[in-house]
Amino acid sequence: MQHTFLFEEGYWKASGYYYTETGQAYQVEGQVRIYHEDNLWINDGVMKVVGQESIEIRNRYEVIPWEEGQELTTWVSVNPGLGVLEGTFTITDDCIISAYKAEKGEFSGAEVLIQASADRYLNRGVLVYKGKEKLSSWSVELNRVQNLQAY
67-118, pLDDT tens digit by residue? Predict the structure, then answer.
């Protein structure tokens, strides 16, 4: 099965859990829009903690499209809370694996997108402070939809 997330333009709904540094779980909902420009793929997403209107996580990834035959590419994102993030996406079988760090070096993390079907991915990740303190983690399911309602 070929990967569809990132590789095809479209809309994805997200639902799952966000975990704080102490492991406290909160339900999250969100959405992602993937679109392709000439030499750039955009992954524009927002996640909101259910019942906590003030907690919103926004990211806009600018992804360099994979070159033919390559398994790794790079991306950059500006996160309002963390600053500029730089990372990689690597294809490994049914997974898209990402490793990243903040431009200033205090924050780093990793996440994996596991393809369950062409229209469904499981996303797991962690954000770390100074390489040794967990700030947050998440366990989210992404399902492709025809269109999105604006947040």
Answer: 988 999 999 998 888 889 999 999 999 999 999 999 888 999 999 999 999 9
Domains and CATH numbers, the chain: 10-140 (2.40.128.20)
Q: What are the residues whose beta carbons fall under 8 Å from the beta carbon of 145, sequence distance 6 or more?
A: 11, 12, 13
- For residue 68, the SS3 value is coil
Cβ contacts of 40-47, under 8 Å, gap ≥ 24: 40/64, 40/65, 41/6, 41/65, 43/6, 43/75, 45/14, 46/151, 47/14, 47/18, 47/138, 47/140
Beta strands, E only, 71-106: 72-79, 83-92, 95-102
For 19-52, give the secondary structure using H, E and C. EECCCCEEEEEEEEEEEEECCEEEEEEEEEECCC
